[in-house]
Design goal:
heterodimer, A: about 250 residues, about 0% strand, B: alpha/beta, four-stranded antiparallel sheet, 9 helices, about 35% helix
Amino acid sequence: MTLALEFDFGVVREYMFNDVILDGVWTTIQIAVLAQLIGVVLGVLFALMRVSGNRALGFAAGFYVWFFRGTPALLQLMILYLGIPRMFDNQTLTTELTAFRAAVIAFGVNEGAYMTEIMRAGILSVEGGQMDAGKSLGMTQLQAMRRIILPQAMRVVVPPTGNEFIALLKNSSVAFAIGLVELLGAANLIYSVNFNVMELLVVAGIWYLAITTVFSIAQAEIERLLAVSDRERPLTLVSRVLDLMAARRPL
Amino acid sequence: MSAPGAGPMLRCLGVHKHFGRLEVLRGVDLEVERGEVVVVLGPSGSGKSTLLRCINHLEKLNDGRIYVDGELIGYREVNGRLREDSEREIARKRSQIGLVFQRFNLFPHLSVLGNVMEAPVHVKKMPRKDAEAIARELLARVGLSAKADEYPGRLSGGQQQRVAIARALAMQPKLMLFDEPTSALDPELVGEVLDVMKSLARDTGMTMVVVTHELGFAREVADRAVFMAEGVVVEEGTPSEMFAAPREPRTQAFLSRIL
């Protein structure tokens, strides 16, 4: 018995910049960026509720984190996209809530739960004397949060947020399950016609690596900018590449 | 109670503060006149720092009242009972009281100039240009004009504390509180901070309450020394009197240990 290796690099090259694939790439990036933005906004909001000292607000934020971190993102997406429109049987809702919008909202709200915990850790990492100093100068708690605490928390928050964003880029592929043609969906669309399964999966893989690499470099750049106040270690390109290779949680 | 502009700058009446079961302040009475410099001495745990934190309402009182420039701090009187002020009102009153911390608490993400401009711009809503002019003038006064664009992390402890004093002064406070301002400093850096405080007292007539163990500073600058122990004021007097002939046994014991 012979084992014929059937893998055609020509197919990979041919589909690398195929329009359907490129649209998928763009959709994947859009979902991740928009969902991450929603996640950051919700994260700041709910983290502030958690550290506010107000019991009702703290409980509400705790409930949010408990629910959205405790159920799969895909389940939340299916509830939003398939369950709720059917439950209300509302024509406008069904047409307005496209698969793309549902994915952005569901992933954003899900991401917000993780960002809440990240932001909370960032806020708690800032020394208590900073809040005292802000207040002693006549700032309200919220003012001191915004001007003094949050900017300092950012340095702690950026690395895990980068991880979250990279995870979102990849995990957005589960939206494939509600028929959204993002990157993996685009590959699937093509290989179910031409049966070059492996080649198209390689195309998708190369694109995912390319996107995550670009955003990882952007993250390192943000971290460098945030470190201006203690500019002790100048980040060279080499150290940045080493950082990228050494780090990041596997999915 | 007296109107602003008349009467003592600071009045503490029967101030009580406890943390859980721990009674830190057990009825502190203290008056500070306008332009007066008062040093507060006492063993650690005697409630000195807590008293300062109560004066600008970083801590709530359990009983008693504190007036600054005739204005009740942290509370308002409604039908003879005290209600805590709104956060905005607390912040407004606090902005008139400068506090210098033992550990500086400069904002590490802002430059030295940014630290001093922060509150004038964002609390007083002063135009940036005016705030910068004031900030540069204050930095000159504490001898740090050259460091305006540095970040706090690059400064020595003594320099950081001088910036912290400039930052507090930028709000043009009526009263300055110093919470062991030199205790976290290396010995050779203490002098530069005390010098700034001395000139503040002499040249501007600022009303100051200084918690410190620096008896030399107390003797040279302070109008009055107050000795606290176990949450109450035990003894008051001019520094030279008190250091030479303390009346109370607890004052004697404390002074004999640090002199």
